[in-house]
């Protein structure tokens, strides 16, 4: 992303803080309004004098679907598995988020199971939302818009949808009936086929659809129209014949198995389908599992819909060590017989796109002649000299107005081309990172360090461009599990995470370069957890928590990770927290017993101090106020906020809020005697992002109803150098940064 792509307003312009902000974002000033104000649900926002923008990383998540509108040039929509939906702004060449208004309570709806457009009515857009189908997840919801996603009408469903589960790359599962655009069809995973005759205001079971729903499996995997005939892919068998995977209807009331359809492992489950209306041929991709992982067989078949003749047009048949499935399918609306399909889970020789111009008789692998430019999003090199063509390729789309404009989604980005040879991320504005840790250093070039799922740790030298250094390497982590900075020596940073070549590293230059620990406890590989460093950087305390929830003894190092020793008195599984002013002091909160533990000998031993605090709350976060010794704040999701000013010997409940999800600190406001406190909390019954300039006596909400971003419970921090600047971690919408308007 270039500087000209983000021009925002700053009330700090002309001041020292304003100059710092301009340098930080790489702009002479911040002008205009937040890109996220494009998303609305048609309600007046709460008063919130803050401007919000994404910290630019660029994608980082699974883009599971893109749909071009066939009647409007430059109009397209994208869906993601857990990061919302977007509309393409062709003039600005960027994606506009459409679901940032989703609240904390509706965070399950940030995953988009499917989307649909109305070919005859370009302003209409439909979304089926719901991330998980497990018992603990809420039901899905259906949204319809008459203004391309600017405002929405919502219908709560009685079924669950699973956009972030296996099978998320299939589809589309949502379809506008070509015979009556008020009629919609929705394929579910465990509740069969649903039908609405009032544009999604009400839903019921589709009559005449024979397969029986099951509590497991994929259910309806794809819906597609071929003229006035509708086709539905079925991923579970029909209870009597597992070979029936494709059904059709000509009247919308009676569904029948498609005659002559393929069977066997290579055609076990329909993934995607695309209709060539000129040739009257339907292309269907198949795999032996829903993906994105675990596919080892698949095929591409073509159905001549007027004759009922099937043809096997598989580009390359999987087999042996070269096992994979087929995923995406798209036809070129300008050129008869031109089709693009994708492989998926092809780890042997790498996934690719196959393109045919003769109806599947011959195919060309587009990867073979591709050059990939990721200079705008360097993290896509994954620590290597050059990027790959991608993985988890379960969708592809061809621009109906430009045959050479093709996009395909991967597990980390959306690649596009305009000439079938040169590819680059087409991802501006689309941010899907799930963020776990944030640090805003008090000195140095970078104002932000982050740790996330799937992309590890990043050093944000600018906020409006993807980090120039890409992912932190030496070693490379897939997911960060810990990130800490020495308060009195901010050049010293440590990080932990999941990786194949080590699970911990330290930096002496503020996080720009890293040195792996010379050794690590044996449990570190399978259960790396959070880490802390004392204020002077002389001691590391590393806790070990497995992804399955099991906890293991904590270890301590005094030599940058060369040697480790067990800390038997540390509460097992707790998160270590260093005192920012006293290098001898560390803390830990035992969530199982509701006890605060402290060490005064640099982590050699820990003893209990305050007891009787809330326990069993999965949302506990203990943080220490900067520059002060013993000033501790404890966020508890279900029990509110607590504060200690005596090093955890006693705590008092902060009564100004009802629930506390995560808390952090930033530079004090002008004239204030205490640092600004930033808080994701419930205050006065309203859950949002809050700021206090008087040590939590009073709160001011700084987000509004159009900027909620779903789940926000992981991390928040203010900038210690710029009053009013705050960084917010989301679970699917990346890092948001806000500043006073």
UniProtKB/TrEMBL annotation:
Transmembrane regions listed in the UniProt entry: none
CDD domains noted in UniProt: Sialidase_non-viral (cd15482)
GO biological process: polysaccharide catabolic process; xyloglucan metabolic process
GO terms assigned for molecular function: hydrolase activity, acting on glycosyl bonds
Listed InterPro entries: TAT_signal, WD40/YVTN_repeat-like_dom_sf, Xyloglucanase_GH74
Swiss-Prot/TrEMBL keywords: Carbohydrate metabolism, Glycosidase, Hydrolase, Polysaccharide degradation, Signal
Family stated for the protein in its record: Belongs to the glycosyl hydrolase 74 family.
Name by which UniProt lists this protein: 1,4-beta-glucanase
């Amino acid at each position: 992303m270039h500087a000209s792509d983000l021009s925002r307003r700053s009330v700090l312009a002309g001041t020292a803080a304003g100059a710092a902000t301009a340098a930080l974002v790489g702009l002479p000033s911040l002008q205009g309004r937040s890109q996220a104000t494009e998303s609305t649900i048609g309600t007046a926002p709460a008063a919130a004098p803050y401007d919000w923008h994404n910290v630019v990383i660029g994608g980082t998540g699974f883009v599971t679907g893109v749909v071009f509108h066939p009647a409007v040039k430059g109009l397209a929509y994208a869906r993601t598995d857990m990061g919302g939906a977007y509309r393409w702004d062709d003039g600005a060449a960027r994606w506009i988020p459409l679901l940032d208004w989703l609240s904390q309570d509706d965070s399950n709806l940030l995953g988009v199971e499917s989307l649909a457009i109305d070919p005859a009515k370009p302003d209409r857009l439909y979304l089926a939302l719901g991330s998980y189908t497990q018992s603990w997840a809420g039901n899905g919801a259906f949204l319809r818009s008459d203004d391309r996603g600017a405002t929405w009408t919502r219908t709560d469903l009685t079924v669950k949808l699973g956009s972030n589960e296996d099978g998320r790359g299939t589809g589309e599962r949502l379809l506008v009936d070509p015979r009556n655009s008020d009629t919609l069809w929705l394929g579910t995973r465990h509740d069969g086929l649903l039908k609405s005759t009032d544009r999604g205001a009400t839903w019921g079971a589709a009559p005449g659809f024979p397969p029986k729903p099951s509590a497991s499996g994929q259910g309806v995997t794809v819906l597609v129209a071929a003229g006035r005939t509708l086709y539905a892919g079925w991923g579970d068998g029909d209870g009597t014949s597992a070979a029936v995977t494709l059904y059709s209807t000509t009247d919308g009331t009676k569904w029948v198995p498609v005659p002559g359809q393929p069977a066997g492992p290579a055609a076990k489950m329909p993934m995607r389908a695309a209709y060539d209306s000129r040739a009257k041929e339907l292309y269907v991709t198949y795999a032996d599992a829903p993906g994105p992982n675990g596919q080892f067989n698949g095929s591409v078949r073509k159905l001549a819909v007027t004759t009922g003749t099937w043809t096997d047009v598989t580009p390359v048949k999987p087999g042996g060590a070269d096992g994979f499935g087929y995923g995406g399918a798209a036809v070129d609306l300008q050129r008869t017989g031109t089709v693009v399909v994708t492989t998926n889970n092809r780890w042997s020789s790498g996934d690719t796109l196959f393109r045919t111009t003769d109806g599947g008789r011959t195919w060309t692998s587009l990867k073979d002649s591709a050059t990939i430019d990721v200079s705008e999003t360097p993290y896509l090199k994954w620590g290597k000299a050059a990027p790959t063509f991608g993985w988890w390729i379960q969708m592809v789309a061809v621009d109906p107005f430009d045959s050479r404009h093709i996009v395909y989604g991967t597990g980390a980005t959306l690649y596009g081309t305009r000439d079938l040879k040169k590819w680059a991320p087409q991802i501006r504005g689309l941010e899907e990172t799930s963020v776990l840790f944030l640090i805003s250093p008090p000195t140095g070039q970078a104002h932000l360090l982050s740790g996330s799922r799937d992309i590890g740790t990043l050093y944000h030298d600018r906020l409006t461009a993807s980090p120039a250094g890409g992912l932190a390497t030496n070693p490379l982590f897939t997911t960060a599990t810990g990130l800490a900075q020495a308060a009195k020596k901010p050049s010293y940073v440590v990080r932990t995470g999941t990786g194949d070549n080590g699970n911990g590293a330290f930096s002496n230059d503020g996080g720009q370069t890293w040195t792996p620990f010379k050794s690590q406890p044996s449990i570190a590989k399978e259960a790396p957890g959070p880490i802390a460093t004392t204020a002077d950087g002389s001691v590391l305390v590393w806790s070990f928590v497995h992804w399955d929830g099991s906890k293991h003894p904590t270890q301590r190092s005094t030599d940058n990770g060369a040697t480790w020793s067990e800390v038997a008195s540390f509460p097992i599984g707790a998160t270590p927290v260093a005192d920012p002013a006293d290098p001898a002091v560390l803390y830990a909160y035992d969530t199982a017993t509701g006890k605060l533990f402290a060490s005064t000998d640099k982590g050699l031993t820990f003893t209990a101090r305050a007891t009787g605090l809330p326990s069993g709350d999965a949302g506990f976060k203990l943080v220490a106020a900067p520059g002060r010794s013993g000033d501790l704040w404890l966020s508890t999701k279900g029990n509110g906020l607590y504060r200690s000013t005596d090093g955890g010997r006693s705590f008092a409940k902060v009564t100004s809020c009802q629930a506390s999800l995560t808390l952090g600190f930033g530079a004090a406001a002008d004239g204030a005697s205490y640092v600004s406190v930033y808080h994701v909390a419930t205050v006065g019954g309203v859950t949002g992002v809050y700021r206090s300039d008087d040590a939590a006596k009073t709160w001011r909400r700084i987000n509004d109803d159009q900027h909620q971003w779903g789940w926000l419970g992981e991390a928040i921090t203010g900038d210690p150098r710029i009053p009013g600047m705050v960084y917010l971690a989301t679970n699917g919408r990346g890092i948001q940064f806000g500043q006073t308007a």
